[in-house]
Amino acid sequence: MVEMPYIDSYMAYLQLEKTLSNNTAVSYRFDIQRLAGYLRQHGALELEKVTPDILSAYVRLLYDIGFAAASIQRNVSSMKSFFAFIASEGYIGTDPTELLESPKSSKTLPSVLSVEEIEGIIAAVDLNKKSGVRDRAIIETLYATGMRVSELCAFSFEQLLEADGLVRILGKGSKERIVPIGDSAVYWINQYLEKERGHVARLTSGSTVFLNFRGKGLSRMGIWKLIQQYASAAGIQKEISPHTFRHSFATHLLEGGADIRTVQEMLGHSNIVTTEIYTHIDREFLKQVHRSYHPRCQKGPVQ
Fold this sequence. Notes:
By secondary structure, this protein is mainly alpha-helical. Helices cover 55% and strands 4% of the residues. The protein has a three-stranded antiparallel β-sheet. The relative contact order is 0.10.
């Protein structure tokens, strides 16, 4: 695990001066360790190289890989606390988090893929390449079930009720929901199990369905990277992430006429207000329906 410079001094400050609970302090340390890994990848682990732009890009990445707004808020709080401390101790001249904003809860619907764009992403998967069948199964499963990326990472054999065409999804707060999965996703999961998983599985792999080449469960970052790869190959310009498939799943169901409370159940939302953001339907879709079914539109302009 990558450690940030002065992390031990910071932890002592949290526990001795701020008197934070041990659990909260451990959470802060984990957040800073995650940030340190990102900074090392970008050649900025030396504190004088950390800029507001780098930290803003990191926060955007947390959004992209599916972190909840509350988790991102805590990460921003951790960063602000750490950099404020090392600035006060004179380890850096200026605090790069001074202008960093915490994310606000938003009801704005992120990018949604059209059915054609999803088909393009699926078509971009080369089934003859290593892990191609796995990647096809992952994309099919994300779109078929509306799983969160964290739920997909933890997806196990016991959760697939193949005979019933259902999956048991363990969501936030260990709440369980039952969601149909559809024949296509089941087919590609079985193809993956038959052709690829056995080549990478280890005794320690357990019942986790989707594995990396070391036989471990995939990380959120790993799934984010493969989605980016295939979206780029499909020529899709909009910013998307694994969570985009969840948005698309919900939007397409509602566009097809599904009841909003049914969609709420499948998404695992405790409050229907959260689901209501998906009642945003593309205006072109609305106009298309209007043209197709309104009697006056079907007859053409009045002469």
